[in-house]
């Protein structure tokens, strides 16, 4: 009886241990199989996948830029160039644009418009409704340092594509009854080219298209603040204001609400 009593717990313990090991192996096999069948879809790894896998610091830098915590920067940090290039050309950038524009529409559709033609939505143009990504991609320039000569050549082509989320928002705002004001830092010498570019990409109507005077040397904040002040003094109500730069959205007469489109590629003071 003593022998049987001492052996029984040992056998039971051994059996349970084997069963537990088998169960853990089964879990491991299922986990591996599931991972292979349903791989994680890293949406913003489309262009340069290896450069983004260790991108924690660069992601933090991008968030700092978008939150306006990092200011007066002159170029993308060297270690983040590949990351920013991948972000701007990958689907994460498009998703971020979609989020901003969806939130803008959710806000806009709740407003009570007066139907007197004075409720306006102000859009910046470059990299807010029209994209310069083809220019930066052709130059392979993801550090964001703009060559004035090559950028002028790009601007003269008038081939900037629409940012899909912004174009969709624009059309919805018109249906809601907003008047559209395009306020751009592009100089007046490009007026005809800009009009053709806008119309060709689906922006076919607007209340005002305002370009910077060719001899205007004011900062972006000063220039856009002064134009918005003129709009309000003219009886317009700025119900929404959207741009890719903080200089589009700060200063005076900024409107009832502002919306920042993503752009960690260059900084306009």
Description:
This protein is of the alpha/beta class. It has one domain: HAD superfamily/HAD-like (Rossmann fold, 3-Layer(aba) Sandwich), CATH 3.40.50. The protein is 49% helix and 11% strand. Strands 3-2-1-4-5 form a 5-stranded parallel beta sheet, sandwiched between helices. Helix 9 links the parallel strand 2 and strand 3. Helix 5 packs parallel to helix 8. Pfam families: Acid_phosphat_B.
CATH class: Alpha Beta
SSE order: HHHHHEHHHEHEHEE
Q: Give the CATH topology.
A: Rossmann fold
| Distance separating the two termini | 90 Å
Secondary-structure arrangement, i.e. CATH architecture: 3-Layer(aba) Sandwich
Tally the helices: 10
Helix content class: 40-55%
Taking the sheet with the most strands, its summary is:
5 strands, parallel
What's the gyration radius in Å?
27 Å
Q: Can you tell me the CATH superfamily?
A: HAD superfamily/HAD-like
How many domains comprise the coordinates? 1
Keywords: Glycoprotein, Hydrolase, Membrane, Signal, Storage protein, Transmembrane, Transmembrane helix
Pfam family, one: Acid_phosphat_B
InterPro entries: Acid_phosphat_B-like, Acid_phosphatase_pln, APS1/VSP, HAD-like_sf, HAD_sf
GO molecular function, one term: nutrient reservoir activity
